[in-house]
Design goal:
globular; mainly alpha; about 55% helix; about 80 residues
Length: about 80
């Protein structure tokens, strides 16, 4: 059987995602599966933290965080 995270990590993730919709859980699963494919380990708690931050932006309607100083100009690459 293919496991994305271990049993303990899955139980911790279940507690951290209490209140997530089915769509949000599906998004988390897909993100974790992609991370498993491309990286040596899945950081499920970090993925959950990032999702919660994005959900909070939606609730508060604050999409951008202010920068410490205004920036103008071009970036040389």
């Amino acid at each position: 059987m293919f496991a994305i995270v271990g049993e303990e990590e899955a139980e911790r993730a279940a507690r951290l995602t209490d209140g997530f919709t089915f769509a949000q859980l599906n998004e988390l699963y897909v993100s974790a599966a992609l991370q498993k494919h491309y990286e040596p380990e899945v950081k499920i708690q970090e993925l959950i933290r990032e999702m919660k931050a994005e959900l909070n932006k939606e609730k508060t309607q604050h999409w951008h965080t202010p920068q410490s100083e205004p920036r103008m100009g071009f970036v040389a690459g």
